[in-house]
Amino acid sequence: MDAALPMTSIDPRDRVALRDWATASRAAFLQPAPTEEALDERLAEVADHRLTAVRDVVGGEERVVATLRTFDAEVAVPGAEPVVVDAVSTATVLPTHRRRGLLSRMLTADLERARDGGLALAALIAAEAPIYGRFGFGTATRSTSLVVDHTHVRFRPDAPSAPGSLEFVPAGRTEDLARVHDRARRARPGGFPRDAAWWAAAGRRGEGRWLGTRGHVVLHRDEAGVPDGYVAYDLADTSTGRVAGGTATVADLSATTPAAYRALWEFVTSIDLVRSTRAADRPVDELLPHLLVDPRAVQTGPVDDFLWLRVLDVVGALSARRYLGAGTLVLEVVDPLGLAGATVRLHVAPGERGDGEGWLSPEVSTTGAAPDVVLGVGELASLLLGGTSAMALHRAGRLRCSPADAHALQRLFATPEAPWCPTWF
Ligand SMILES: CC(C)(COP(=O)(O)OP(=O)(O)OC[C@H]1O[C@@H](n2cnc3c(N)ncnc32)[C@H](O)[C@@H]1OP(=O)(O)O)[C@@H](O)C(=O)NCCC(=O)NCCS
Q1: I need a labelling partner for 14 at 20 to 30 A (CA). Which of 102, 248, 287, 359 fits?
Q2: How confident is the model at residue 242 (pLDDT cuts 50, 70, 90)?
Q3: How many domains does the structure of the chain reveal?
Q4: Which residue's CA is the closest to the ligand 1 atom numbered 19?
Q5: Residue 349 is part of which domain span?
Q6: Which of 93, 111, 337 has the most ligand 1 atoms within 8 A of CB, as the residue to mutate?
Q7: Residue 132 bears catalytic tag
């Protein structure tokens, strides 16, 4: 570890310091130094974030060589209110200073701070999958991509449908979109908030942004005129000769009812002169194929990890969600970094159904009892939102327990919908 180089905090409102910090972080992601416009956007985005830098003297000048950004944000969990987590981002070390322990120092210091501050979880999106397992993170949501062939799209007669209306939204008018997204992200495990700065940046369409120069946003309203879905897409002319063959790329599609969801997909897949739609960062249990007479009109894949979680407080993390199954298990959670390891009793009694949806509240407490299941802190993070099969982890040798207890874990942690996070942060 390179203990000689000091870690310092950066004031996110200090433009000069932020420029040095952003120049270093962008270089590690192979990008040029920020323009003044990009810096303005960054200032707005990170105004209340925690920025860390490591500096070194390079060519006689002190420069930022490593960066980390963290902030508090809510992640939706099964059956309960979203949980505030330590969101980790912009973890970079310049190639000249890599593999000297700088990331390890910055990240472990921040995780300790978050745990001491009472947060039960940390979250991030990994640039490369091998980096974060050693820090106790595990994959909590997965996403996939779709290609829809419009010539084969026909909705089933029983596909949900309701009266409503569609309208184009002018660039920059994002209030209705933000409201729809906020309702949708709370309703599904893995959902992540988008603040005003996120929407302001999304509203500025153009090259290299959320929506390109041919971007459009269409809002759906229900019969009463209340917004209940939107789709944001870009168009490209991919015709050959006189044969029309435009392609739509969906940047974002969010709906709070299946009928609005259907209306938006029906809209995009029936635009004249457009023959196919692509969409990335979609849920692995996307509804669209189930709505179609020919589900092969939707080609799905690949599936990749998206949101990673790190448990900082085992009792807090297990208590934050609700469960559909009932059961009692003693879990020994092993944490090689020594931040959160604990042996706990998770008890979910049948019949204590809190609300009409069948979610059950758990009782969770530390215990000296012998464990039924021994698992790593990263494996617990993977199970927490219901996105990873306990049976698969058991078969992979990553849970130490009987097959029956792995099955019991599977029943306890399963969720009706796959967890999904479509928001980069
Ligand atoms: C990824 C990155 C931040 C790692 O920083 P670093 O200071 O070199 O990391 P550390 O020296 O603290 O490494 C800690 C351990 O993780 C391992 N590791 C680090 N980066 C890794 C990678 N990309 N793949 C696999 N292992 C990696 C190291 O080998 C080391 O292992 P060890 O403890 O067994 O020796 C840095 O290489 C970087 O900025 N890469 C480009 C930008 C990026 O991908 N950032 C991540 C954003 S999510």
Answers
A1: 102
A2: confident
A3: 3
A4: 131
A5: 314-413
A6: 93
A7: yes
- Give Dmax over CA atoms of the chain in angstroms: 74
For 143-182, b where at least 16 C-beta lie within 10 A, e where not — what string? bbebebebeebebeeebeeeebebeebeeeebebbbebbe
Q: Has residue 422 been placed in a domain?
A: no
| 39 annotated as belonging to a binding site for a ligand | no
Which of the listed residues 87, 119, 151 is the one where a domain comes to its end? 119
CATH number of the domain bearing residue 238: 3.40.630.30
Contacts of 225 (CB under 8 A, 6+ apart): 165
Rounded to the nearest angstrom, the distance between the alpha carbon of 260 and the centre of ligand 1 is 43
For residue 51, how far is its CA from the centre of ligand 1 (angstroms)? 19
Provide the percentage of residues in the chain whose pLDDT is more than 90. Answer: 90
Q: How sure is the predictor about 238, in pLDDT bands with cuts at 50, 70 and 90?
A: confident
Question: Which residue, among 318, 280, 319, has the nearest Cα to 301 in the 3D structure?
Answer: 280
**Is 71 an annotated catalytic residue?**
no
Let me know if residue 419 belongs to a domain.
no
Which of 64, 87, 119 is a domain's end point? 119
Catalytic residue among 71, 132, 230, 323: 132
Residues 299, 320 within the same domain: no
Q: How far apart are CA 232 and CA 36, in angstroms?
A: 27
- Look at the alpha carbons of 174, 176, 177, 178 in this order and tell me if their dihedral is positive or negative: positive
Same domain, 171 and 270: yes
Q: Are 147 and 279 in the same domain?
A: yes
37-53 burial code (b ≥16 CB/10 A, e <16)? eebebbbebbeebbbbb
Report whether 74 contacts 14 (CB < 8 A).
Answer: no
Report the pLDDT value the prediction gives residue 421, as an integer from 0 to 100: 98
Ligand 1 centroid to residue 137 C-alpha, Å: 14
pLDDT, tens digit (0-9, with 9 covering 90-100), for 53-105: 999 998 899 999 999 999 999 999 999 999 999 999 999 999 999 999 999 99
Contact 388, 139 (CB under 8 A): yes
Task: Inform me whether the pLDDT recorded for 13 exceeds 90.
Answer: yes
- Residues 191, 268, single domain; the answer is yes
- How far away, in angstroms, is 100 Cα from ligand 1 center? 9
CB atoms within 10 A of CB 330: 18
Q: Locate 43 and state its tokens.
A: 């200032």
Inside any domain, residue 75? yes
| Closest CA to ligand 1's atom 23 | 131
**406 in the same domain as 332:** yes
Is 93 known to sit in a ligand binding site?
A: yes
Tokens of 217: 């946003």
